[in-house]
Design goal:
mainly alpha; 2 domains; two-stranded antiparallel sheet; 67% helix; 4% strand; flat
Length: 270
């Protein structure tokens, strides 16, 4: 998770965490509302515009997306194969694009290809929206939001710990790789199976370091009396401003417009 200190001050940081949570849910609802990739591409542009206004680190976005590009390609290909002609309502979607194995009715249809692109756009919208939410929201605000939602303190602490220590473990992984290279270990940097081969020598030191961090964290929690009180206290309280009302109003307009297009006008189907 990016540190807030690494992000330039912007209007999204000053928004109430509940407003940003509603924004995240509204983007996910809009992404799931349509099956046509053209409508999902518009939602993706909105999510990208929000990420741009929030000054999201595009370097981190590229680092996040690059390792899973083969997965995106496989999703599009398998969706094209697995979606038959009878699954679509539009005549264009039922058209066969490529006959791979006619004897077993193994064909790629336009509808299957469109559905694969829709899945891809939904994943991109989810990644962009969640990264924007996490980058502009502190862990304390997230914990406070979970407490307002009546989530048990132990469960919210587990979620926040996972979010906080994933970057720490990644940095430790990089340090271990650099230490092994300095000691003469040959670690390939190119190839399809590089992640698997580099993962094996990392297991033991990374696992040992994780146990040590967990032990240190448990001692810190005990020394600070975690769990001895039912409710946690926070230094700041939620404050709902005019800008939050404006943003939530825009989100409601987008949701209502999406429902009108999907239900009343029956657009966005394949």
């Amino acid at each position: 998770m990016p540190k807030l200190s690494e992000v330039k001050p912007n209007v999204f940081q000053s928004l109430d965490v509940r407003t940003k949570g509603v924004m995240l849910l509204s983007m996910l609802c809009l992404a799931l509302l349509f099956d046509d990739p053209r409508f999902n591409f518009i939602v993706f542009l909105i999510a990208a515009g929000i990420a741009f206004l929030a000054q999201l680190s595009w370097t981190k976005v590229r680092q996040t997306l690059f390792p899973i590009l083969p997965l995106f390609l496989l999703i599009v290909i398998f969706a094209g194969f697995s979606s038959g002609n009878l699954h679509f309502q539009q005549e264009r979607s039922q058209t066969v694009l490529l006959e791979v194995w006619p004897a077993f009715h193994l064909n790629i249809t336009y509808g299957g290809l469109y559905r694969g692109i829709t899945y891809l756009l939904r994943m991109l919208i989810l990644i962009l929206s969640s990264m924007t939410f996490l980058q502009t929201t502190s862990l304390e605000k997230l914990t406070q939001l979970l407490q307002k939602l009546k989530v048990p303190a132990q469960f919210s602490f587990m979620i926040m710990t996972a979010i906080r220590f994933i970057p720490v473990l990644n940095r430790k992984r990089i340090l271990i790789l650099e230490a092994q290279k300095a000691r003469g270990a040959h670690i390939p940097e190119k190839g399809a199976f590089v992640p698997i081969r580099t993962f094996l020598p990392l297991v033991v030191p990374l696992f040992a370091g994780s146990i040590q961090m967990a032990n240190t964290l448990s001692m810190a929690m005990m020394s600070r009396g975690f769990g001895y009180t039912r409710y946690q206290t926070h230094t700041d309280e939620f404050r709902f401003r005019i800008r939050d009302g404006v943003v939530i109003g825009l989100e409601i307009i987008l949701i209502v417009l999406g429902l009108y297009l999907r239900i009343v006008l029956k657009l966005g189907k394949l």
